[in-house]
Amino acid sequence: MKAYLELEELNRLADAANNLRDRLLVTMLFHMGCRISEALGIAVGDIDLNNGTVTIKHLKRRIKLKCPKCGASLGLTSVFCPKCGDKVEVAVKELRDHRKQRILPLDDELISLIKEYISRGGPVNRNGKRLLFGINRHRAWQIVKTLGEKAGLPRIINNESGKAHYVSPHKLRDAFAVFAVKRNDSGDGLRMLQEHLGHQSFDTTAKYRKVAGEEHRRWYDDLWKGDGRSTKA
Length: 233
Known about the structure:
Number of helices: 9
Shape: globular
Number of strands: 9
Order of helices and strands: HHHEEEEHEHEEHEEHHH
């Protein structure tokens, strides 16, 4: 049983979609690695097709702020640090505003799909916004699960619990993260991935390096099979 989906399987998942909305949904979840709540919150106005970017609004309310000088915990309305006494009002505002959103790049395939989807009138007007998808979280999970079954994809095992799960939006986010780490697992690459995924803790991002590392072991073991020379004299 697998811990994550491979690129070929993700392509099969997208090909299983019989309408443009569902194909765009699964492609966006994998190509951007965003959370399902973030994807469903994207409005047409958040997308800059000229620059190839999309602004993701952070929906997690919990924000941990720290003093730039001493690292002491700060409140959302702090003016002075309770530990060192430094004025932190500006720093708090900048950090708070920064963590409310992040701007992610879009690849050419995704840009093409978005343009076609918008031109066909796919977005939905809701609560004063022109949302890209206009469906709820439950429906999105149902779409991904159904496409996974249609594509014949295996269930994915959770390394922490050992339980197997159907293909889900979060598994597409995991697949993006592992895909990214396998191509660049340097310190800079992992920090960039942390920023891209919107992780506050580096430890959350680093777990994908461990998963990708399992592939390294299999690759190394395969070097000594078949035509590989043995260590015997």
